Design the sequence.
């Protein structure tokens, strides 16, 4: 029996050791991003004696990054130039010029708009597939399902030509529109909305709801957790898009991935500035992750459904 | 008894069939407005789907049989109402080359290099990552582990990291004078040319991808583990199984479908690798030893502007990924059955 | 508030080639304020009929009128009906207050305060005023049931529709809610159509009962009527618990020869005149054990306390008898039974129609209890003819 307990102790020790090692290996690069962003390049790019303690150069690194002329990483106050002349006074109406968006704001804006619009589209389509009968429903659904197995972000060549033709190059719409009708999103919403009892919708019909009210007053509120999980999937999908934005966006409209790519591909690579950019890109999402852990996890698991 | 059935049906089987048909029909929703409502809800998604997904899928295939000569300007349709005019031009100026684009792949050494690199990364990275993810999942699933939620969160943190942003950290850490080599040399080991040797630069990609995705796969595997009924372990224990045997005879077979899913999605992920080699190896350095297929497609299409050939390459990649996905769907289907 | 009239209502499902008739030319008149129960086996079309009345299904042909308002082509939300669903269909994301008030919010222009007051009144009436802020998942089955009722009542509809509303409750709560529902319906005096597959519930609750089978209305009448004077063998079999014993017998003048030792002399042979065989029905409660009668073999005895159920075999025919609790025949014991001729049912062997029912003997006249006998009669008429029509369709 003593042998048994000793073994158990060794086993537990090894297990904890393994988990702790994993945690350290996971955290070190994250910590290193942060530390490097607060140091000068020479302080951390040194094979002799790199420091692991944060320094105080974050702000100067940030200023240097902001001073770059090929990349605007964080936005700045803009100048409004469109006025209506009322004689004694002017009223500026070009509020969109209030703030010149940098890569961070662009990415958040694009991913946010994409997430909201895609949620709307996918949930509406999912609702139609789950709760209505119409001709060709099955063929249409299977056609959408079939594209689930395609890596849709690889269809950049015709999209590039298409965007050139309709004049959407260098527009945020070019990176929002193509993936709005997200097959995975439609599929997930359809699966989840099938669990809404028909009686619930009929009950609402008898209570006087229109078909559209059924959708946004009954179906959407009951699908809150699925919508939350899906919104994480959609947000991260857009947040991580690199190839097509790289192709279609020009300077001034860069999203985070393209902006960082510009920094890395520049003539002279300033690692301290890049680390500031990486910190600013990664840390906010980490915080979000800590707050919305449950949704992240269910988003990951929802993305791994198979049927 | 026959007379009794004559009350509502000529023979019982007909009556049963009728009843069955009625019930299944009765479960359907009524179709208000003859099914128009369904179309209305579907319309926005359907239009976007058609223009931005269905069309590109078909057009990429079409393009793969042509050589791209430039953006099209041939007028296909011209509407001029006086107030408003619209000119639809052809999407591209093309010349037909038949199967040339596909034939060219056989002699394209850079394509072969990209295939080799991708396969190399695949063979090393996927088993390594799945093994690690499984070990972490099993470790976290152990009943004695405290702070399970905290550890899970920590291990899953990289999931939220932007693909390009995190790559820069590896670019930094793997410099000749970077953190990793500092640790190695302080341990008395030789420094490794992580970014300049063709072998080690691939290993750098392997390390980065493993760091980014192990937690993701661990979460899926952990959910799979938690779906295994506890009774199975108890039964195995009563049958005298030790820890290793329980893992071998209960965990692995029960987890098989999830494991396969993780394997297949990771494999597909490797075929889609783009951000990491672009950022860490600056586009395939050294000497194209890390160039991946997607990266090669990008170069062919948007640096060299050989869109026809790039489309053919895309289709080969899509074919590979689709076959893998189909395998995954089948595996998933079996597990549900 | 108004009555409901169904005029040759027909509901077919499916498209052109494969149609299934769920409701077959049903004529039914429901009086203002009446509590009508639609009862029948599953798949008989009772729920479809209810859904047609609700406007959740559009009818294939026929008309539905509320009072003198033709609602056939109106959608559910324009019909002024309220429905209680089997699973209550409470909106899971709304609390009780919002659930009850939802219909008022959508279909009236009242202010939030007015709606709130009405919701509270109804909640008080149902004894759920303390639950108003809770979500449905925090409530017990009985409480959810009350909320569903409240949601229907608050709208003060012309018509209440209930689709097996008690089937998810446990037995004790069910009988309690049964009484409560009846009282409530009586107080509110709203025309109510109630669907159930449980004939006991139907008998206990309905002012009148409409028995359906195979998409057709078999009979409409008071509980006593459908029990004592069923129009055909199906109704006789469906109503009454335990079920009526029915078997074939050959007719020889006034003598009936059934399975085993069964022989019976009719004092009045007119119902079976001209027939070679007939279906004989005897309700278990009409059987009494006697010293000298028709012999059968006892199988199982189920003591119920106040009475005993005896399961016996009569020449291969299973017979159920409800007997005096003091009589306890053992297994395989031979017992003799008899029954009064007034209690005997006879059915046509081909059509199943009743040739003779209990009504012949000692039935009190129920005319005064049934508000509209014409309606009831028109319902009973269609019976078997319609059935045959429908069978032909299926065969095609």
Sequence:
């Amino acid at each position: 029996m003593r042998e048994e307990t000793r073994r158990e102790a060794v086993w537990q020790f090894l297990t904890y050791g393994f988990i702790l090692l994993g945690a350290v290996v996971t955290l070190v690069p994250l910590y290193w991003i942060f530390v490097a962003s607060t140091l000068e390049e020479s302080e951390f790019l040194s094979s002799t004696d790199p420091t692991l303690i944060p320094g105080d150069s974050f702000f100067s690194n940030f200023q240097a990054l902001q001073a770059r002329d090929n990349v605007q990483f964080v936005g700045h106050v803009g100048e409004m130039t469109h006025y209506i002349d009322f004689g004694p006074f002017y009223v500026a109406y070009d509020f969109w010029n209030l703030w010149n968006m940098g890569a961070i704001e662009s990415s958040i804006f694009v991913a946010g708009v994409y997430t909201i619009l895609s949620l709307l589209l996918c949930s509406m389509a999912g609702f139609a597939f789950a709760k209505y009968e119409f001709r060709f429903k099955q063929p249409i659904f299977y056609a959408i399902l079939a594209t689930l197995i395609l890596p849709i972000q690889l269809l950049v060549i015709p999209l590039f030509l298409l965007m050139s033709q309709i004049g959407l190059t260098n527009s945020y719409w070019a990176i929002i529109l193509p993936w709005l009708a997200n097959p995975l999103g439609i599929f997930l919403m359809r699966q989840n909305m099938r669990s809404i009892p028909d009686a619930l919708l009929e009950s609402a019909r008898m209570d006087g709801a229109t078909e559209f009210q059924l959708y946004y007053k009954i179906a959407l509120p009951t699908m809150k957790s699925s919508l939350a999980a899906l919104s994480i999937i959609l947000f991260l999908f857009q947040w991580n898009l690199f190839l097509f934005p790289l192709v279609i966006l020009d300077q001034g409209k860069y999203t985070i991935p393209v902006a960082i790519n510009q920094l890395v591909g520049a003539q002279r690579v300033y690692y301290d500035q890049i680390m500031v950019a990486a910190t600013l890109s990664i840390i906010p999402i980490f915080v979000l992750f800590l707050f919305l852990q449950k949704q992240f996890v269910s988003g990951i698991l929802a993305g791994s459904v198979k049927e | 008894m026959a007379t009794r059935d004559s009350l509502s049906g000529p023979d019982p089987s007909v009556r049963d069939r009728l009843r069955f048909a009625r019930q299944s029909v009765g479960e359907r929703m009524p179709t208000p407005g003859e099914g128009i409502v369904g179309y209305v809800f579907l319309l926005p998604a359907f239009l976007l789907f058609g223009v931005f997904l269905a069309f590109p899928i078909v057009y990429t295939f079409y393009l793969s049989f042509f050589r791209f000569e430039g953006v099209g300007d041939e007028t296909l349709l011209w509407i001029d109402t006086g107030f408003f005019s619209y000119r639809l031009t052809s999407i591209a100026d093309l010349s037909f080359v038949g199967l040339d684009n596909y034939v060219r792949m056989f002699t394209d050494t850079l394509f072969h290099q990209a295939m080799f690199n991708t396969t190399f990364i695949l063979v090393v990275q996927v088993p390594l990552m799945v093994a690690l993810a499984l070990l972490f999942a099993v470790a976290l699933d152990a009943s004695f582990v405290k702070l399970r939620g905290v550890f899970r969160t920590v291990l899953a943190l990289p999931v939220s990291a932007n693909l390009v942003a995190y790559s820069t950290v590896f670019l930094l850490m793997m410099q000749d004078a970077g953190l990793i080599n500092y640790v190695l040399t302080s341990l008395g080991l030789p420094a490794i040319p992580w970014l300049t040797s063709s072998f080690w630069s691939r290993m750098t990609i392997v390390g980065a991808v493993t760091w980014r995705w192990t937690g993701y796969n661990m979460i899926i595997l952990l959910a799979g583990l938690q779906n295994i009924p506890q009774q199975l372990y108890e039964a195995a224990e009563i049958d005298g199984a030790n820890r290793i045997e329980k893992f071998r005879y209960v965990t692995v077979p029960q987890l098989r479908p999830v494991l396969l899913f993780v394997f297949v999605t990771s494999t597909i992920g490797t075929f889609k690798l783009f951000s990491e080699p672009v950022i860490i190896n600056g586009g395939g350095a050294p000497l194209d030893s890390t160039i991946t297929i997607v990266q090669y497609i990008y170069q062919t299409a948007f640096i060299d502007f050989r869109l026809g050939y790039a489309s053919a390459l895309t289709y080969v990649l899509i074919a590979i990924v689709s076959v893998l996905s189909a395998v995954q769907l089948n595996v998933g289907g079996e597990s549900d059955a | 508030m108004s009555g409901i009239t169904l005029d040759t209502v027909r509901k077919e499902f499916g498209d052109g080639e494969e149609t299934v008739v769920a409701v077959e030319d049903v004529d039914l008149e429901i009086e203002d304020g009446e509590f009508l129960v639609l009862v029948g086996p599953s798949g008989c079309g009772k729920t479809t009929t209810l859904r047609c009345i609700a406007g959740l299904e559009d009818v294939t042909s026929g008309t539905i009128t509320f009072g003198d308002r033709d609602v056939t082509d109106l959608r559910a939300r324009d019909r002024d009906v309220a429905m209680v669903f089997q699973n209550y269909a409470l909106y899971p994301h709304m609390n009780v207050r919002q659930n009850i008030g939802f219909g008022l919010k959508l279909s009236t222009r009242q202010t939030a305060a007015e709606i709130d007051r009405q919701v509270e009144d109804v909640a008080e009436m149902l004894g759920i005023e303390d639950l108003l802020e809770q979500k449905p998942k925090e409530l017990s089955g009985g409480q959810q049931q009350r909320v569903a009722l409240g949601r229907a009542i608050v709208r003060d509809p012309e018509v209440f529709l209930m689709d097996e509303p008690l089937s998810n409750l446990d037995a004790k709560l069910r009988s309690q809610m049964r009484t409560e529902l009846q009282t409530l319906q009586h107080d509110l005096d709203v025309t109510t159509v109630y669907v159930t597959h449980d004939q006991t519930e139907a008998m206990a609750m309905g002012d009148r009962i409409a028995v359906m089978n195979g998409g057709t209305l078999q009979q409409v009448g008071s509980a006593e009527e459908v029990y004592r004077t069923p129009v055909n063998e199906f109704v006789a079999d469906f109503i009454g618990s335990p079920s009526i014993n029915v078997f074939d017998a050959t007719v020889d003048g006034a003598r009936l020869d059934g399975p085993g030792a069964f022989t019976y002399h009719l004092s009045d042979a007119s119902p079976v005149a001209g027939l070679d065989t007939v279906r004989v029905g005897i309700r278990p409660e009409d059987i009494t054990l006697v010293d000298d009668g028709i012999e059968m073999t006892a199988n199982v005895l189920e003591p119920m306390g106040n009475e005993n159920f005896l399961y016996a075999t009569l020449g291969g025919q299973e017979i159920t008898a409800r007997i005096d609790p003091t009589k306890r025949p053992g297994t395989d014991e031979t017992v003799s039974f008899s029954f009064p001729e007034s209690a005997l049912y006879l059915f046509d062997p081909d059509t199943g129609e009743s040739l003779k029912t209990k009504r012949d003997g000692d039935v009190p006249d129920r005319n005064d209890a049934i508000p509209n006998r014409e309606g009831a009669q028109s319902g009973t008429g269609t019976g078997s003819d319609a059935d045959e029509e429908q069978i032909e369709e299926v065969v095609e």
